[in-house]
Amino acid sequence: MRNVFKKTAAIVMALGLALSMAACGGTDEASNIIIKNASVYTVNEDAPEAEAIVVQDGVIEYVGDEDGAAEYENDDSKVIDMKGNTVMPSMVDGHMHPAESAMSYYFEIGLQEVVTVEDYCKVIEEFVKEHPDNEVYTGSGFMRSTFDSVGPRKETLDKIVSDKPVILTSADGHSVWVNSKALELAGITKDTENPEGGIIQRDPDTGEPSGLLQESAMNLVDDLKPEYTKDEYKEAITWLQGWLNERGVTTVYDGMIPLDNENYYMAYQEMAQAGELTVRVRGAWHLAPEMGNEEELLALIDKGIELSEGFTTDYFQVIGFKFFADQVLEEETAYMSEPYDSGDGEWQGMKVWDDQLMETLFTKIDKAGYQIHVHQIGDAAATYTLDVMEKVRENTGNKDTRHTFVHVQFVNDENIQRMADLNISAMIAPYWAVMDDYYWDLYTPYVGKDRADSMYPEKSLVEAGVNVGVHSDFFVTEPDMGWLFYSAVTRTLPQKIFDLWYEGMDLTRTTETNVDKDYLIGPLKPYDERMELDEIVKAATYGGAYSMYLENEIGTIEKGKKADLVLLDMNIFESDIEDVSNVTPAATIFDGKLVYDKNAQEDAEE
Q1: How many CB atoms lie within 10 A of CB 400?
Q2: 283 has which bridge partners?
């Protein structure tokens, strides 16, 4: 799990988008938009292909051949000639952290573009030099695979900043790297015990905190972090949504909305009410065992439901509650059915919830008609959560709550069928279903090659009848449709990502299967888990829409649905898959309005 693209480039592109929108403002005055000479992939099984689309008053008025579309044309129409390229529903990202990530990219230290400790230090030093008045330095993006099992050390940061706290979140979001000042101000010493559900990594020789705080131990430094205003959230969200539109994304699921941060969720709400959002946001309130006892957690559910009832626009709604069933493999905290190979022969990871407490909370949420959105990595996490969900179904009888498993890294065939039977959606990340340095440096040493070669059973989910959507988990990975499609179909990294990650390194990329040479960057087993291109396109559109109860409004191209469309720069179904890896939107339409136009942006940047 990692991020790849440059923050600086992203900000430049966002500025270009603002100019682009000014250049193409005439779209709002057009009587309709007519898209012709297109290869329309509707994701509608009854009529999967078409030549033309007519958009009027924000909705799709017509889908069919060009002769039929021509009847809608008038002097005020905006006509777009696709020259045979693909038009499809716009992208739905079924789990990310939009507002949180926007703040990180827009205001904080970004380590996403570098991979060595030396380069991390250079980026941090430059940021500190440019922001000498900051009282605390926060950021994100360092990779756990860069360090040993103890992780990065506080001394590295102390050489850069010793008098102010530095708190940097890992690329996977499950640990923070801190300096000595942060540990001092948080009161973390050699005698501090690990909090429930967390680990304070320690120097193997001295026992002193080494500088890495994992899982719930991250909360120990939360009070040191800056508090952002509502206006700052709005500023960052405004930047982010243009950046997402450029990637063809117009609907997202915020997978971890904090109940205790009014500025966070009210920034969404006020922008939605003012008609300022160009992404449709659904989301879930975050609950964790450390937030209180059973009574206190039930009270938080009541609070979340009460707040959700006030969010009634089409553009922002909180429809669920987010739970971690376990943590992540990178930190050896995913809950596995068999012990980790790298440990003492007994460590199986973190089981986050007590079964009975989980059942009580799930039952309350399910009865209220809200969704349960579950982070699930390890196979044991899937088993105990499904056990609880089966009891909840018996308790409530509710069969259309569309609960969701996110990540689904390890899950066996029996549990896949249980997911299908319970109508549990799977949000998958084909970006990660590849053989890369995480596979060699973390996954294989932690769980062995056989288990590492069973990760991410994507095709099996589809064939079992599970509703499958996709997610980037941004900021963990930046959404990129070419990368998404390519890795789903091939289970390997596209060349462009290999070049970004491994430039100058003695590594080899291959698309050949059944190659077991160590440290090749190639396809991930099982090879029969590769998806077809139409399957991943459906997951990236309809699958996410269905999981959010939006399948009657978006996710397919049909008359009467909202006009959320992405116009591509090639015909993806007639192109080589290597070329598809580089596909980009030529334009994105949201609610019938052109929110991204590549040509207009390029003209504005010249």
Answers
A1: 7
A2: 254, 318
Q: Which amino acid is at 402?
A: R
H helical segments located in 159-293: 180-186, 230-246, 262-273
Beta bridge partners of 566: 88, 588
- Closest to 459 measured CA to CA, from 437, 505, 435, 491: 491
Is the Cα torsion angle 313, 467, 461, 435 positive or negative in sign?
negative
> What is the percent of the chain where pLDDT is above 90?
81
Give per-residue pLDDT as tens, 458-505. Answer: 999 999 999 999 999 998 999 999 999 999 999 999 999 999 888 878
Residue 520: how many CB atoms within 10 A of its CB?
Answer: 17
Of the listed ranges 23-27, 59-63, 344-348, 554-558, the least confidently predicted one is 23-27
Average confidence score pLDDT of the chain: 92
Count of positions (residues) in the chain: 606
Contact 304, 297 (CB under 8 A): no
CA distance 475 to 168: 13
Nearest Cα neighbor of 211 from 133, 155, 292 is 155
- Cα(335)–Cα(340) distance, rounded to whole angstroms? 10
Contacts for 520 with CB less than 8 Å, ≥ 6 apart:
435, 507, 508, 509, 510
Joined tokens for residue 348: 């199986």
Q: What are phi and psi of 581, to 5 degrees?
A: -60, -20
